[in-house]
Design goal:
alpha+beta; ECO RV Endonuclease, Chain A; about 210 residues; six-stranded mixed sheet
Length: about 210
């Protein structure tokens, strides 16, 4: 599966489209998710759908499985039957990427005890007015680093008394993975454009239909 996935990073026509369209589509997602100038949590789900749509566009609906059971907290989509986790981060720092969303301290500790990498990661680093990237981090690279540094240096638990809503992969671990020779990266210039877009228009149009 990994060799097929890498096609995204070798398809020059698709690379051009990603560099041009991804910032625009993610900007639309932010507009859709904004209330009074603040971006809501639902932006993550919209970004995920945009990336899944990219996979469908490239590989076709037959080979992209989107109906993933809720019991699979890390897996967002399957490509050719192989699981993929889609992650997005904003800014230059590689911190704050969740491995699992939970506010339960005990569940977080249990997760760290039992966790082992089990799927490829597709990571989007968003850095408006600067350069970020689209990263493919294969499972092999994750396992190699996890075995080398151990779970305590790989996994960051939430601080007691705070409400960060999840267990994270450490900043150092993610940076190591992003720079691993097995990983792939496509640099993206994150520039916003002027968009005349009303997130309510399509719903109003549906109400207007007979």
């Amino acid at each position: 599966m990994a060799s097929r996935f890498i096609e995204i990073f070798e398809d020059q026509k698709l690379i051009g489209k990603i560099k041009k369209r991804l910032p625009y589509l993610f900007q639309l997602a932010e507009i859709e998710s904004s209330r009074a100038g603040k971006i809501g949590m639902e932006v993550g789900s919209l970004r995920e759908r945009i990336i899944v749509a990219l996979l469908i566009y490239k590989f076709g609906e037959t080979d992209v499985e989107t109906e993933i059971p809720i019991t699979e907290p890390e897996i967002d989509v399957k490509l050719f039957g192989e699981p993929i986790s889609i992650k997005t981060i904003t800014g230059k720092s590689f911190s704050g990427v969740k491995l699992i969303w939970t506010v339960d301290t005990q569940k977080a500790k249990e997760f760290r005890k039992s966790y082992y990498p089990h799927c490829d990661i597709l990571l989007v680093q968003i850095d408006w007015n600067s350069t970020g990237g689209l990263y493919y981090i294969p499972l092999e690279a994750q396992k190699k680093l996890f075995d080398k540094i151990g779970r305590r240096k790989y996994i960051k638990l939430p601080k007691p008394g705070t409400n960060p809503r999840g267990v994270e992969i450490t900043k150092d671990a993610l940076l190591n993975l992003a720079n691993d020779k097995l990983s792939k990266v496509l640099e993206i210039a994150w520039q916003k454009t002027k968009i005349d877009y009303n997130p309510y228009k399509r719903w109003v149009d549906y109400w207007r239909e007979d």
